[in-house]
């Protein structure tokens, strides 16, 4: 049983039959009380496997396999619009709930989600942009749109996420890495760096000082 809400099997059964109000509790009392009072001698010889089958059947709908299939069909990296991380969290909740219990399963899934959120804040994405001429000269992520055109000596980077004390050092290292990669690929020295901050929704004092240091160094 799950203390705050009672038996999961009864909760699932109530949801399946369309219970809407707390009056269902009175009906449960009547049914369970009547069964205990008048049908105990009959139910006494009922095999435990039969009781287990009834409970499993009533809790079957608690597992949303349809969502798991949808997440699996979107098994792509998060930055490509996929739901790989959501699928991993789903499996963590499912497996730990089966083997350890509801509290461990839900708690572990919530903890995994928090870790991913903190990771996104500390290590956001920084992508190199390329010009997609077939779409009206719009700029898109080169990793997703490999046909994007880059110009010799020009590096255009879009930062996606909050730029703060947690991600400032990572941003500097990632920007330097992208500069070296482009110089190695194009055989031209990067003379111009364009930073797109359209997706940056937070900028703290540490990040501003870091940008000033970068500007001074590049000059």
TrEMBL record:
A GO BP annotation: transmembrane transport
A Pfam family hit: STAS
Alphabetical GO CC annotations of the entry are: membrane
Domain named STAS: residues: 144-219
Q: TM segments?
A: 25-46, 88-118
Location in the cell reads: Membrane
Which keywords does this chain's UniProt record carry?
Membrane, Transmembrane, Transmembrane helix
Name the major location.
Answer: membrane
Q: What is this protein called?
A: STAS domain-containing protein
